[in-house]
Amino acid sequence: MSTEPVLIAGTWRDSEKTGFFQSADPATGELLPALYPISSWADCEAALVSAEAAFEEMRGMPGEKIAAFLESFATKIEARAEELVAMAHLETALPKSPRLADAELPRTTGQLRQAAAAARSGAWRQPVIDAANNLRSCFGPIGPVCVFGPNNFPFAFGSASGGDFAAAIAAGNPVIAKANSSHPGTTKRFAEAALEAIVETGMPAGTLQLIYRTSHSIGEQLVTDDRVGATGYTGSRSAGLNLKRAADAAGKPIYLELSSVNPVVFLPGAIAEKGEALAAEFTGSCLMGTGQFCTNPGMIVLLASEVTEAFIADLTRRFSEAPVGTLLSESVLKSLHESHRILTGGGAEVLCGTGPGKGSGCCVANTLLRVSGSAFLRDAETMQTEAFGNSSLIVVASTLEETAAVLGKLEGNLTGAIYSATDGSDEAAYDRLEPILRQKVGRLLNDKMPTGVAVSPAMNHGGPYPATGHPGFTAVGIPAAILRFAMLQSYDNVRSHRLPEILRDDYTGPAQRFIDGKWQ
Q1: Do 222 and 361 reside in the same domain of the chain?
Q2: Separation between Cα atoms, residue 243 and residue 248, nearest integer Å
Q3: Nearest residue to 77 (alpha-carbon basis) of 189, 181, 165, 204
Q4: 179 with 65, same domain?
Q5: Which of 37, 125, 238, 415 fits 3 for a cystine, CB–CB 3.0-4.6 Å?
Q6: Reported pTM
Q7: Does residue 1 surpass a pLDDT of 70?
Q8: Taking all residues of the chain, what is their mean pLDDT, rounded to a whole number?
Q9: How many CA atoms lie within 13 A of 467 on its CB side?
Q10: Domain span at 241
Q11: CB contact at 8 A, 436 and 451
Q12: What is the pLDDT of residues 208-241, one digit of tens each?
C-alpha cells in the first residue's frame, strides 16, 4: 500500500516503514485518505547521515546565507498560505480565520524573519573577549537538532516551520523534523516549501528532513544518537519524560514543553470592582480555541466570600451558555475525559460540563469544576491534573494564608496571573502572594489573561518543571530561544585568522561584543 514519502537528503523518497497511519478530521471523525509511514530506524539512520553532512557545511556558514534561507522560506509559506490554511483546518478543525490565516500564519513567518535577522547580526552569539589573556568565547552551533512538534499549533510550533525549527536553523544546525500525527499533511506542505527555499538559496540538502511517526523506542534511540546535538519537544508529559530519560542517560540536551495549568488569582477587591467584566474575560480566555492553548488558564484561585460565590455563579452561567468548540482529535477528547475523571475522583465538584458537548465532532461540554482550598492541599498533585481543553478548576480558599499555601503547592507553570483592585485595597494580599507565585511560573502577569504569547525578545515561554524541562530557557523570543541549540565555544590563544570572524580584532559587523569588561 502506497504511503506519502519522507524527505531525506533533499529528496522525497519511499519510507523504510514498519506500518502506516492516517490523520482524521476532528469535526466529523472521518479518516483522511492519505497514508503516512511509521518510519523504521533505517529512515532515521539515513536522515542522521544526511544531517551530519549538512552540519559540516552549516557550522561555518555565514549568517547571511542562513538568513537568506529563512527569509526565502517565510516568503514561500506566504505564497502557499491558502493551501496551508485549508490543510491545517481539515486536520485540526482550527478555524481558518482568524486563527490560522490571520494569527498563526503571520506569527510563523514573523518568527522566521526574526530568526533570520538574528542569524545575520550574530548578536545571539554573545562574543566575549579577554584581551589580556587572549581568551575569547562565543556561542556556536551544537549539531543536528531533532524537533518534535505539538498538535495544537500546526504552524507556529510545527516541527518543520515553528519556533524550535527557526531557532535551530538560525544557530547553524540542520533539523530532523518529526511531524505530529494529528497534522502530517500540513507538516509535509511546510517541508515542501522549505525544500524549495533550500534549493533556491543553495543550502545543504539535509538542512531539513521530515519523518512522520516512529515507535517510542525508535524515537528514544533517535534523540540519544551520537550525531544529534539537541532535541526540542512540545507535547504530552508522559511521552516527553520518556524522551528526557533517554536523552539524559546519553548526556544529550533536550528542551521540553510539557504541561501547565496556568493559575489565575482573582483577589477580592478586583472581583468587587469589576466582577462581571472579569468573568467575561476569563470565559473568553479559557474557551478560546476550545481551551487548547499551552497557556490556557486551567485553574482559578479565589478567597471565599459572598461576592466570590456570585462570581462563581456568573462564571458557571457563562460557561454553560457559551458555544462548544471542537477538540483537536479523538485522543485529546479521551485525555480530557480522563482528566475530569481523575479530578472528580479526587473530590472536585462539577459545576457544569464534563459530559458530551453539543458542538461538532470531538467535543466535551464546557466544564467548570470546584474544590475547596483545604481539599486541594490534601491532594495537590491530583488537583493539578492538566485538563487540556475547554475546562478549568476553581479553588476556593478560606483565608489569605490558605491561598498562600495553595500557591506554595503548585507545580511549575508557564504562566501565573494575579488580578487586583485599582484602589489599592488588594495591595497587602498581592504582596503576600506574588513572591510565592513568582517562583512557580516563567511569566508573571498582572490584570491580564495568559493566552497569547508575544513573539518578543523579552518573552519567556518556559518555566519550572513540569511546564518545561529547564527553567532557564524559552521556546519563544529571539535571541534567547536560539541558545537552546547552541554551545559555548572558548578560544585560548588561538591565532586571529583562525578565529570566528565575530571574535577577531578586525571585526566590523553589527554585533556588540563584551571586551575587557565593557560592551562595545
Answers
A1: no
A2: 8
A3: 189
A4: yes
A5: 37
A6: 0.95
A7: no
A8: 97
A9: 30
A10: 44-258+471-503
A11: no
A12: 999 999 999 999 999 999 999 999 999 999 999 9
Place of cell 452561567: 317
Q: How do 486-492 and 135-141 pair as beta strands? A: antiparallel
Percentage of the chain surpassing pLDDT 70?
Answer: 100
Nearest to 461 by CA among 473, 445, 451: 473
Amino acid present at 340: H
Instruction: Write the pLDDT tens digit of every residue in 18-49.
Output: 999 999 999 999 999 999 999 999 999 999 99
Residues 205 and 321 in one domain: no
Residues 6+ apart with CB under 8 A from 498: none
Residue recorded with cell 568565547: 137
Strands, E assignment, 153-270 = 175-178, 208-211, 213-214, 230-234, 254-257, 263-266
Q: Are residues 254 and 391 in the same domain?
A: no
For 241-291, give the DSSP string.
Answer: HHHHHHHHHHT--EEEE-----EEEE-HHHHHHHHHHHHHHHHHHHHGGGG
Residue 478, phi-psi category: left (phi > 0), alpha (psi -120 to 50), beta (remainder) = beta
The residues carrying an active-site annotation are 257, 294
Per-residue pLDDT at 447 = 98
Find cell 539515513 and name the residue. Answer: 46
Phi, psi of 334 (to 5 degrees): -65, -40
Q: Do 344 and 369 contact (CB within 8 A), yes or no?
A: yes
Q: Rounded CA gap, 439 and 437, in Å? A: 5
The number of folded domains in the chain is: 2
| 3 state SS of 461 | coil
CB-based contacts of 320, cutoff 8 Å, min separation 6: 352, 353, 366
Strand spans (E) along 70-134:
128-130
Residue 303 near residue 402, CB atoms below 8 Å: no
Closest CA to 350 of 387, 316, 309: 316
Q: CB within 8 A of 278, min separation 6: which ones? A: 266, 270, 271, 311, 419
